UniProtKB/TrEMBL annotation, chain A:
PANTHER family: OS05G0346100 PROTEIN, SORTING NEXIN-RELATED. The keyword Nucleotide-binding does not apply. One of its GO terms (cellular component) is endosome. CDD domains: BAR_SNX. Residues 69-83 have a biased composition (Low complexity). This is Sorting nexin 2B-like. Residues 91-205 form the PX domain. The gene is LOC109724420. Residues 52-68 have a biased composition (Pro residues).
From TrEMBL, chain B:
It comes from Ananas comosus. Residues 1-23 are annotated as: Disordered. The gene is LOC109715885. GO terms for molecular function: phosphatidylinositol binding. This is Sorting nexin 1. One of its GO terms (cellular component) is membrane. Residues 23-142 form the PX domain. Keywords: Coiled coil. The keyword Coiled coil applies. It comes from the Eukaryota. Pfam families: PX, Vps5.
Length: 489, 403
């Protein structure tokens, strides 16, 4: 458990923690930067003082493709000069979760955690939060198309019997990891949702806390929603793509072959990550078992040494006692080395688990895209059906001499609806294109980061295996040498 | 065959080379073969004897023997050579499905080979007539002899347990202050008893852990193999150079899995089995201690009886009874028996002391070798592991510099 006073340093364990902090972050597109600078002007000196901005929407609506994300490694050790790198470094430099506390309210007993964070600007904030106050649904909504890190569920510890403090520790660690991932995400890390969660004083229950005044109110216009009517929403829900790879019924016609290929690749990746994760766990357990048994064997040998030493009558016993002692010491040491090696390996192989979790985010991102496409297609088909109705009415009305007041009125209404629907369709198309592009760049980011993370995982694995194996070899070689007098022939 | 390390004349003996000058007797137990029908199948072994001793008819003889034949020999020796530590036999197998596994057959063969060679190199036991019968008689005669006598001489397990219980309780009785006159309880012997019991305890534990370690090696090997396969598949999702590294890693994993299985086998044969053998040897000592306890009790009882008889005779003498003469004769007989019992007991004590020296020396050598093999095997395994993984490092470096 991290002491809040000391969390501000980078944690020492393994590459993983550091990688979290140094994940390649993206260059903020101009809208992002504007979104930030509106409330960071004071702390930052402003990246773009020339801009005067309206309250920014929760995400940029610009139809132009976002700029490519440059690889930037943010860290406190880099120069703080914003001009030095095109991209703004990560907003949050350090996040730590600690101090689980039991609390009670009308709903019952729950646990809250102290969440401490330090922003690039240098101020430390501390708030007390409940696990469920992270509104994963809102994040998913606000960041459609992105790879939104999935929130760790309570079910994380399924099937394991453990003490309460162990359980709390797992939850704490999971929450910490999750928040750090959110902070490291190029878009979410700079978004209001995370900021509000980390900084809004008091309890952060839905709607109760006041987000920073310059942030948009809760009911901010969500362009994709704008213009819809209830009927369309029902239609969409019925046809909505199931949140899985197989696709919906009816399947959304996705023409982009490139995308389909990528989708297949992701499915395959998920499969292999699942198997690899499982086998990694089994491997770690097997290594642990070897270490433990070695330790136990060593301890018995020590007991034997004691017996032969204390009750020695013959010289041969004393010789043997010395031999047993050599082996005992080596065996105990070997046990320790195996267990130490394991502790290192566990950290490295954890990357597999993390990427497996991330595949959930990939699925969501794909399904965001599918539902955006569905919206477009629904609107298109609506348009054509309304169009047909108008034509029918016009035909019928033309047959009535002098016009049909009711029909003419109806036609006017429908033409109005057509205009609104056209607008909605334009919006929806833009939204679809936007999400497509986000998908694409996020997948690229995933590929890049995965490449780096896997590489460092393999390196860590191999380097540790080599190092510990060499040490084990020298421990045993010494004993073999000391006992070579007994060798046959 | 382990005759090269078991010189016929004890641990300090020379290795005889020239048949005409140095007497030798070397035996090997080989070629286990499954015989019999499905209901009553068993394993038979070839026992090859090479000798230049005059007591043996042929200089080279091959016979076929099964476990029960070895058992027969062991029991005969235990019966006739009280005071000596009879070399231990491997256990009778109770688990049916395990009985014909390759591993079981090999470890049993090795243990039987050790048994017969230890008998052959023991200065006294090698003179046994039963040993000659075992090594020379044809199979039908051997079977007849075995089935005739096996019931008669065989100690029933229940009896053994009772004897062990008695031996064990002596320590606690003395500790509790309940002096039983019929039990030997000199401080040196108490010390020895305590040592033997502690030793068996620790050794049994060591053997158990050693066996577990063998299993753990196998499990690690298996999981490395599975991991290697999974990693290879994962690598195929990645790009060129990284994918290749994954593939390399997977291959190395599979390679090391094989090495682990090998080392597991080595551990079993050259480390765990010697420990098991050590446990059996200690149990054999306990059997001798039981014999010693019996002899002591007999000696005490007879001494008591003689004393009482003496008193009786004096009474009869005073009464001028005609039974006096008869009683005197009985007394003489009893006295002789009592002296014989005392001689038997003292012989066992003397033999035990000599055997103990031999035992300790032999076990230091045996364990020294076992430790050496253990350390050697582990060192080789660790080196193989380091080499395999080290091989991947340059490819990993190449990957990061290019990315």
């Amino acid at each position: 458990m991290m002491d809040p006073e000391t969390y501000l340093g980078f944690e020492s364990p393994g590459p993983r923690a550091e990688d979290m902090e140094t994940l390649a972050l993206s260059d903020a597109p101009s809208d992002y930067r504007s979104a930030i600078s509106s409330f960071s002007a004071a702390a930052d000196g402003g990246d773009d003082p020339a801009r005067s901005l309206p309250p920014p929407p929760p995400y940029p609506v610009s139809p132009s493709p976002p700029p490519s994300y440059a690889d930037v490694v943010p860290s406190p050790f880099r120069s703080q000069d914003p001009a030095a790198d095109l991209a703004a470094p990560a907003d949050y430099v350090a996040i730590a979760v600690s101090e689980p506390q039991k609390e009670q309210d009308a709903g019952g007993v729950y646990v809250s955690y102290l969440v401490a964070s330090r922003w690039r600007g240098g101020e430390e904030r501390r708030v007390r939060r409940r696990f469920r106050e992270v509104d994963a649904d809102r994040l998913a909504e606000a960041y459609r198309g992105f790879l939104v890190p999935p929130r760790p569920d309570k079910g994380v510890v399924e099937g394991q019997v453990m003490q309460q403090h162990e359980f709390l520790e797992l939850r704490r660690a999971a929450l910490e990891r999750y928040l750090r991932r959110l902070a490291a995400h190029p878009a979410i890390g700079r978004g209001d949702e995370l900021r509000a969660f980390l900084e809004a004083p008091g309890r952060f229950t839905d709607g109760a806390a006041q987000p920073p005044s310059h942030a948009p109110p809760q009911e901010a216009v969500h362009p994709a929603k704008g213009g819809r009517d209830l009927l369309r929403i029902f239609k969409e829900l019925k046809q909505s793509v199931a949140n899985d790879w197989g696709g919906a019924k009816p399947p959304v016609a996705e023409e982009d072959r490139d995308f389909l290929e990528r989708k297949e690749k992701m499915q395959d990746l998920e499969q292999q990550l699942t198997t690899s994760s499982q086998q990694a766990e089994a491997l770690v357990k097997a290594q642990q078992d070897v270490g433990e048994t070695m330790g136990q064997l060593g301890r018995v040998f020590i007991k034997l040494t004691k017996l032969e030493t204390e009750e020695a009558i013959y010289n041969s016993q004393r010789t043997r006692a010395a031999d047993i002692k050599r082996v005992a010491v080596a065996t105990v040491k070997a046990g320790r080395l195996y267990r130490e090696l394991n502790a290192q390996i566990v950290k490295h192989l954890e990357v597999l688990h993390e990427y497996l979790e991330l595949m959930l985010a990939v699925r969501s991102a794909f399904s965001d895209r599918a539902s955006a496409l569905l919206t477009v297609q629904t609107l298109v088909s609506d348009l054509s059906s309304i169009q047909a109705r108008v034509e029918k009415l016009e035909t019928a009305s033309s047959k009535v001499f002098g016009g049909d007041r009711w029909r003419l009125h109806k036609i006017e209404e429908l033409k109005e609806t057509i205009r609104a629907t056209e607008d909605a369709k334009t919006f929806a198309l833009r939204e679809y294109e936007r999400i497509k592009e986000i998908n694409r760049s996020e997948l690229e980011r995933l590929d890049r980061e995965r490449h780096d993370d896997f590489l460092s995982m393999l390196k860590g694995f191999v380097v540790n295996q080599v190092g510990y194996a060499e040490e084990l070899a020298s421990v045993w070689a010494k004993v073999a040498d000391e006992t070579r007098g007994y060798a046959r022939g | 065959m382990i005759s090269t390390e078991r010189s016929p004349f004890g641990p300090s003996g020379q290795n005889p080379r020239s048949p005409s000058e140095n007497p030798f007797l070397t035996i090997s137990v080989t070629d286990p073969v499954k015989l019999g029908n499905s209901v009553q199948s068993y394993i038979s072994y070839r026992v090859i004897t090479k000798t230049n001793l005059p007591e043996f008819e042929d200089s080279e003889k091959i016979v076929i023997r099964r476990y029960s034949d070895f058992e027969w020999l062991h029991d005969r020796l235990a019966e006739k050579y009280k005071g000596f530590f009879i070399p231990p036999l491997p256990e009778k197998s109770t688990v049916e499905k395990f009985r014909f596994s390759a591993e079981f057959i090999e470890t049993r063969r090795q243990a039987l080979d050790m048994f017969i060679n230890r008998v052959a190199s023991h200065p006294e036991l090698r003179k046994s007539e039963d040993l000659k019968i075992f090594l020379q008689e044809d199979e039908e005669k051997m079977e007849r002899i075995r089935t005739l006598e096996i019931g008669y001489f065989k100690k029933k397990p229940a009896d053994l347990i009772q004897i062990f219980k008695d031996v064990g309780s002596k320590v606690s009785d003395v500790v509790l202050g309940k002096e039983k006159p019929m039990e030997e309880s000199t401080p040196e012997y108490e010390k020895l008893k305590h040592y033997i019991f502690e030793l068996e305890d620790h050794l049994a534990e060591a053997q158990k852990q050693a066996f577990r370690l063998v299993k753990r090696h196998r499990e690690l090997g298996q999981s490395l193999s599975d991991f290697g396969k999974a990693i290879k598949l994962l690598g195929s999702c990645e790009g060129d150079s990284l994918g290749k590294v994954f593939s390399e890693l997977g291959s190395k994993s599979e390679l090391l899995s094989i090495k682990l299985q090998k080392e597991a086998h080595n551990l079993l044969m050259n480390f765990e089995e010697p420990l098991k053998d050590y446990v059996r040897a200690v149990q054999s000592i306990k059997a001798t201690m039981a014999d010693r306890a019996n002899a002591f009790r007999q000696q005490c009882e007879l001494a008591e009886t003689v004393k009482l008889k003496m008193i009786n005779i004096e009474k009869l003498a005073l009464m001028h009874s005609e039974k006096h003469g008869e009683a005197e004769m009985e007394y003489k007989e009893l006295k002789a028996e009592s002296e014989e019992a005392t001689r038997r007991f003292e012989n066992i004590v003397k033999l035990m002391n000599e055997e103990l020296v031999r035992f300790q020396e032999q076990k230091t050598a045996d364990m020294g070798l076992a430790f050496h093999e253990f350390a050697k095997g582990q060192a080789k395994l660790a080196n193989d592991i380091a080499d395999a993984w080290r091989n991947i490092l340059p490819k990993l470096e190449a990957c990061s510099s290019s990315s």
